Amino acid sequence: MSKKQNTSSSPLVYSTDPNYLPPSEINEIDTLSVEEQPLRIILETKQRAGKTVTVVIGFVGTEDAMNALGKALKNHCGTGGSVKEGEIIIQGDHRQKIFQYLKAKGYKKARL
Length: 112
Prior knowledge:
Elements: E1 40-44, E2 53-57, H1 63-77, E3 81-84, E4 87-91, H2 95-104
Antiparallel strand pairs: 1-2, 2-4, 3-4
């Protein structure tokens, strides 16, 4: 038996919405300026095997800009972490260090 290969990568078959735009035509969200970013810094231990992580949520912008901020925060704290699903995750309790770093870089709406 041979497998049929789908030439279209879109899962959409038909849309009745007259204003529908395919995913390729939708523009990415523009990154807010540094002063307007509503960042929240929280500490989490749930669902992390008892490990403590600092999570920065609320970033509005492109994936590349979020990855750059995550890398800068990891370098500043001297620890590991990741950027997943709109959250910047830093290993350990670094709330004050991250808060001071963000304030120094101009993130005026950042809060603990």
